[in-house]
Design a protein that fits this description.
The complex is a heterodimer of chains A (152) and B (742).
Chain A (H helix, E strand, L loop, with lengths): L2 E6 L2 E6 L6 H8 L18 E4 L2 E4 L12 E3 L1 H4 L6 H8 L9 H14 L5 H7 L10 H14 L1
Parallel strand pairs in A: 1-5
Antiparallel strand pairs in A: 1-2, 3-4, 3-5
Helix pairs in contact in A: 3-6
Chain B lengths: L1 E6 L14 E9 L17 E8 L4 E5 L8 H13 L6 E5 L16 H28 L6 E4 L2 E4 L5 E3 L4 H4 L30 H6 L14 E6 L7 E4 L2 H5 L4 E7 L13 E6 L2 H11 L2 E3 L8 H14 L2 E6 L2 H6 L3 E9 L11 E6 L4 E5 L4 H12 L6 E5 L13 H13 L3 E4 L2 H6 L7 E9 L5 E9 L5 H4 L8 H9 L6 E7 L15 H19 L3 H8 L21 H15 L10 E10 L2 E11 L5 E11 L6 H20 L5 E2 L2 E2 L17 E7 L14 H15 L15
Parallel strand pairs in B: 4-5, 9-19, 17-18, 21-22, 25-28
Antiparallel strand pairs in B: 1-2, 2-3, 3-4, 6-7, 7-8, 9-12, 10-13, 11-12, 14-22, 15-20, 16-17, 16-19, 20-21, 23-24, 24-25, 26-27
Helix pairs in contact in B: 1-2, 9-10, 14-15, 14-18, 17-18
Chain lengths: 152, 742
């Protein structure tokens, strides 16, 4: 099995995996980083969203061989010390219900805000389209993103 | 109901709870009669439901015995005990109770967590506070009336001195539990956690990825399993290529799952599992298996054909489950009769987290970690496979990534346990999304025919309501039922509508798939039919729907289920309460104002799970027939809200959940097998479809009602009523999908 050098949350890791193994399972099963979630395996739900070189990417359909030598950030690495403004806004607005989709929601929202610091509702809906929330926390997600934009 | 509090520390059970020394109280709900609620599943009349432990350093541990699946049960229950205990929120620790009968009913469903245990948690907290005060009074040698507990300290009102709870733990542990009548409960005005929007205790864990769900459990030496199961319920494994699977990198073993015995209950479906060093390899291994299956007795189940048989059952009528007044006579003498047929297909829970369970077997002891709604069900279901008593199996409940009723059925936990035993290593049984969609316990498929008779002034004199759907009881009995089970039938008769003659029928319908309960259960289809028919009456008589609804709210005459003396609370003022929530959404939505062409507001109200809810949806239908809901207003009367923010969140989420059902939800079968398999062909609402929802909470002194489910039933009807108001087209079949497209 080939070996891939990965930089995950600022740390260099060497991972042995088949080339087509999705990054999602490398993160969860091999590296033990279970903050990134499995929801569909087909890039339909967004629960597996991570950042690769700052871009929001669905790790369930991203083969590990494609991300060697790239900067991977997972939800655990978003705020190594203090919570980011976005995460604080998420708590302040009491967004989460079951919490399972929220890692992916936050990673997508963080990428959106990095590119567009003050998005309107329509821009939020477009950027967050892929991220499903079965509990229906959508309106609070919008509110938290607006709050983070204001306070960030 | 009454509550019995026991000083457990006097009985030396502390060691079992893992505390050194400390002060431990338990509180039991003593239900009236033999069972607490239609929805309740009490383990026994004197099983404690809460354990409250205060350690030597003053840390308060609240053993919360209910699963957390997004409804905020653990936060809410903790608020209750912490308030009466006068605890400092920062010195509390919430311990999820592992599966054990001593914790009472851990079955988290039916929207019961807060309402069933409110009294027990209050009294436990208040009793502990009282005993700490007694210990303090003894220490200072003053009358107990001269001390007061406030925020983790007891104050000596005479001297001004104050000491931390930790200083009285040892002494309190030796005291007898005071008579409940001498324990003062706080008034609503004195509450500082109860009734407040206290933050979710898991909030920070969720946003940092630290929260551990069933899919996230990791144990030393653990391996991963994924299974190929019979596509048709009742089917059997025929053939598979073991060698091909074993050749896949990372695959360790290929293990057949046991053939179940009828009735299915929560047994695994059977099939063959692939065990590997990681989930991905297990999935690849399963693909390589090329497993084939025989269909078995349900191989002909085709939901399109089955619907025809439901309509035949409707024609035939079936069993009358409720009958007041003389419906045939009232219909015959009616000035106007309206009849409509309603159809709702199978629905699936599709929680964001597919089912998963991790099991560990050391040759003697079995341990399971899983996102289940009831750990005791896991114990009782798994035990027979190991020749053990249920209480000898350790089951821990992780956080649940959504459940909506599916995770009450622990077939996935049995699979994990069996594979752990086979492998001699910890095994995580992972269900993929495809497994979740294909092998669920689905909301039933239903046909309804409602016929009403109106007098000359348009007042409803008769309501004849036929329902036909396979019952969720069939997985337990293995027999075709008349869907006449209490909680499946009750929704229509419970509605406080002043209808002099009301008759309900249950048609014959056999299940060919596993049918289970899904958030609000039969109130889904009954809410749809009742809410739609009231709107159809309005259209047929040229009156505004809100006028017709208000005319209809009236005192309900008791019937079979409502006369049950074991139901804990009678239903006083039901009509007033439903009228009140309805009036609120009419008011909030500005109902009656002029709207743009192609826009309408739809209204509906329903009572379920002890609460009263109403919804108003503003709906636009584009010329091309696309439906959009920009805004929604909902109201709930659940007595009062222990955590108003969590209740509001449930109501907001229920609108999205109800819209998913009405717009998209349809699970079908062909040749016995489920057609859908992922979010692509079983869509749910995404952020762009989510309306801005405004929620009103109505409060009063009535007994608490549920909050998790009641928001759902009015939504589909309100949506379809809004569509009718917008473009004059009546939808009677769900999902709406392309019905409006030209």
């Amino acid at each position: 099995m080939p070996s891939y050098p990965l930089t995950v949350n600022g740390e260099r890791r060497e991972v042995e995996a088949p080339p087509e193994m999705p990054l999602l399972w490398v993160l969860r099963d091999v590296l033990g980083l279970t903050g990134t979630k499995y929801g569909c395996g087909k890039s339909l739900c967004g629960a597996c969203t991570v950042h690769v070189d700052g871009t929001a990417v669905r790790s369930c359909v991203t083969p590990v061989s494609l991300v060697a030598d790239k900067e991977i950030t997972t939800i655990e690495g978003l705020a190594p010390a203090e919570l980011t403004t976005l995460q604080q806004a998420w708590i302040a607005e009491n967004v989460s219900q079951c919490g399972y989709c929220q890692s992916g929601q936050i990673m997508t929202a963080a990428a959106l805000l990095a590119e567009n610091p003050d998005p309107g509702d329509e821009e939020i809906d477009q950027a967050m389209f892929l991220n499903i929330c079965r509990c229906g926390t959508y309106q609070r997600i919008r509110k938290a993103i607006h709050r983070a934009a204001r306070e960030g | 109901m009454s509550v019995l509090v026991t000083n457990v520390s006097r009985r030396d059970v502390i060691k079992a709870l893992g505390l050194g020394t400390g002060f431990v109280l338990s509180a039991s709900v003593v239900p009236r009669g033999l069972r607490a609620l239609v929805w309740g599943n009490s383990a026994g009349p004197l099983s404690p439901s809460v354990y409250l432990a205060i350690a030597e350093d003053g840390t308060v541990s609240v053993y919360v015995h209910r699963a957390e699946m997004g409804q905020g049960s653990r936060t809410g229950l903790t608020q209750i005990v912490a308030d009466e205990l006068e605890a400092d929120w920062d010195r509390l620790q919430v311990v999820p109770a592992y599966g054990d009968k001593k914790f009472g009913s851990q079955n988290t469903d039916g929207s019961t967590s807060i309402r069933e245990f409110y009294d027990a948690f209050r009294l436990a907290g208040a009793t502990a506070r009282t005993m700490l005060e007694q210990a303090a009074a003894a220490h200072w040698d003053v009358d107990p009336s001269r001390v007061e507990a406030r925020n983790h300290r007891v104050h000596n009102l005479a001297s001004g001195e104050a000491l931390d709870y930790r200083d009285f733990v040892a002494a309190a542990a030796l005291l007898e539990v005071p008579d409940p009548t001498s324990v003062a409960l706080k008034s609503r005005a004195q509450h500082r956690y109860i009734g407040k929007p206290v933050r979710n205790i898991y909030g920070e864990d969720f946003v940092t990825g630290r929260a551990v769900f069933g899919q996230d459990v990791r144990r030393e030496g653990m391996v991963y399993a994924v299974a190929a199961r019979p596509p048709v319920v009742g089917g059997r494994l025929k053939d598979y290529d073991r060698e091909a699977a074993m050749a896949v990198t990372g695959v360790l073993d290929v293990v057949e799952l046991p053939v179940y015995e009828w009735p299915m209950r929560y047994q695994p479906l059977g099939g063959v599992a692939v065990v590997a060093t990681n989930t991905w390899s297990a999935i690849q291994g399963r693909d390589a298996l090329n497993a084939t299956f025989e269909s078995g007795p349900n191989g002909d189940y085709d939901t399109t054909e089955y619907e025809a048989s439901l309509w035949q059952a409707i024609e035939a009528g079936g069993t009358v489950t409720y009958d007041r007044g003389d419906v045939p006579a009232a219909l015959a003498s009616a000035a106007k009769r309206i009849r409509a047929d309603y159809f709702v297909p199978h629905q699936h829970h599709i929680p964001m987290e597919p089912p998963a369970a991790t099991a560990e077997w050391n040759g003697e002891d079995l341990k399971i970690w899983t996102s289940c709604q009831d750990p005791q069900t896991v114990q009782t279901t798994v035990a027979p496979y190991f020749g053990k008593q249920p209480e000898d199996i350790y089951v821990e409940v992780t956080l649940l990534g959504g459940a909506f009723g599916r995770k009450s059925k622990p077939d996935f936990a049995v699979e994990a346990a069996l594979l752990a035993r086979h492998m001699g290593k910890p095994v995580k049984m992972v269900w993929t999304r495809e497994d979740d969609v294909r092998h669920g316990y689905y909301h039933t498929i239903s046909a309804q025919r409602v016929e009403v008779g109106l007098d000359a002034s348009g007042k409803v004199q008769a309501w004849d309501h036929r329902s036909a759907y396979p019952s969720l009881m069939e997985v337990y009995s293995g027999q075709k039922t008349d869907a006449a089970t209490d909680f499946e039938v009750v929704p229509v008769m419970e509605q406080p509508l002043a209808i002099p003659a009301l008759r309900l029928w249950s048609g014959e319908a056999k299940a060919h798939i596993r049918v289970g309960w899904l958030r609000s259960v039969t109130s889904i289809q009954h809410g749809f039919a009742v809410g739609s028919m009231v709107d159809e009456i309005a259209a047929a008589t040229g009156r505004r729907p809100d006028v017709v609804w208000n005319d209809l709210f009236g005192s309900v005459l008791t019937g079979t289920a409502l006369d049950d003396p074991e139901r804990p609370e009678p239903r006083p003022r039901a009509a007033d309460r439903l009228r009140a929530v309805f009036g609120r959404v009419v008011e909030m939505s500005g109902y009656g104002r002029t709207l743009a062409p192609g826009t309408g507001i739809g209204l509906a109200a329903f009572t379920s799970f002890g609460s009263f809810t109403a919804a108003a949806l503003e709906v636009t239908v584009s010329p091309a027939g696309d439906v959009h809901v920009p805004r929604a207003w909902t109201a709930i009367d659940c007595g009062f809200a222990v955590n108003p923010d969590r209740v509001a969140a449930q109501m907001e989420g229920a609108v999205v959940f109800g819209l998913s059902i009405a717009l998209h939800g349809e699970l079908t079968t062909r040749n016995g097998a489920v057609v859908q398999d992922n979010f692509g062909n079983y869509p749910v609402c995404r952020i762009g479809e989510a309306p801005q929802v405004e929620v009103a909470l109505l409060e009063n002194e009535h007994p608490l009602g549920g909050a998790g489910e009641p928001g759902v039933p009015p939504v589909a009807a309100a949506l379809c009523n809004g569509i009718f108001a917008a473009v004059g087209k009546r939808i009677r079949r769900l999902p709406i999908r392309n019905q409006l497209k030209s």
